[in-house]
Design a protein that fits this description.
Helix content is about 75%, strand content about 0%. The longest helix is centred in the middle third of the chain and has 21 residues. The chain is elongated and about 60 Å long. The protein has about 260 residues and is mostly helical. Helix 3 packs parallel to helix 5. The chain has twelve helices and no strands.
Length: about 260
């Protein structure tokens, strides 16, 4: 049980870091919002993410995300409304963040109940990134609740969506897909030789380094270092541990594992 809880935290942390906006700009989805009320609620989610969730105030963040959900539903938008797709996209994001909090709090069954609503909202939004992130969230929840096969299938669907574009968000999500694959192998849930873990970490670095996603770069170096140690390549592992520390210090990311 303890192992499952730690895995849930690791998956939730990966999801958190894979959904961050690139340095120096707002997220693409935020800039595309056409409804002021929906836009304001999305900005509230982003504020809660940085001021509460990333500071470890999980219960408080969960309450705020739940309040945003209620405010979004109170708008009473229907499918024919021009702002409906945006409302559904932000609703999916709110549900994603709630699920992330519930997993870290060990309340994985509650997170599972949110998953169907989250994916329904993401599909209604017509937004590829929203759908891809929701699939990754849903997959993480499935894995954390013991459905490894179903979770892996959902992660593969997310990978397909992330591979469907060339934006920062697409690349960021794909890079973190490879980190999740390496993490699952490190947790012993997926059979993989150390060489395969190294290959997954290399793919993550290849994608995340050019877009300067330093938290992801740090995580990839860390998981690769573990695999190198298993192969007895201690000098190479030490170099990767040092690289991990370097990129953590650049971003203040800390060690999410």
């Amino acid at each position: 049980m303890r192992t499952n809880h730690l895995l849930a935290v690791a998956l939730a942390t990966a999801l958190l870091l894979s959904c961050q906006a690139p340095p120096g700009r707002e997220s693409t989805s935020s800039r595309s919002s056409t409804n002021e009320e929906v836009f304001a609620l999305e900005q509230r989610i982003e504020s809660t993410l940085t001021t509460l969730e990333q500071q470890g105030e999980l219960e408080a963040a969960l309450e705020d995300y739940q309040a945003v959900e209620q405010d979004l539903l109170a708008l009473g938008l229907e499918s024919g409304d021009p702002a409906f797709a945006e409302q559904q996209r932000v609703l999916a994001y709110s549900l994603l963040r709630q699920g992330n909090m519930l997993r870290q709090l060990g309340r994985t069954e509650e997170a599972k109940l949110l998953s169907e609503r989250e994916i329904e909202a993401a599909r209604a939004s017509g937004d590829q990134i929203a759908l891809a992130r929701t699939l990754m969230s849903y997959g993480s929840t499935a894995i954390a609740t013991g459905d490894l096969e179903g979770g892996l299938e959902l992660l593969e669907e997310a990978r397909t969506e992330f591979e469907g574009g060339d934006s920062y968000d697409h690349k960021q999500g794909l890079g973190w897909y490879w980190i999740l694959q390496a993490d699952l192998a490190a947790a012993g849930l997926v059979e993989a030789a150390p060489e395969e873990v190294i290959a997954a970490a290399d793919k993550a670095l290849e994608i995340l380094m050019p877009i300067e996603n330093w938290p992801g770069v740090a995580r990839a170096y860390g998981v690769r270092a573990q695999a190198l140690e298993k192969l007895g390549r201690n000098e190479d592992a030490l170099a990767d541990w040092e690289s991990q520390l370097h990129y953590e210090e650049m971003t203040g990311a800390g060690n999410p594992g």
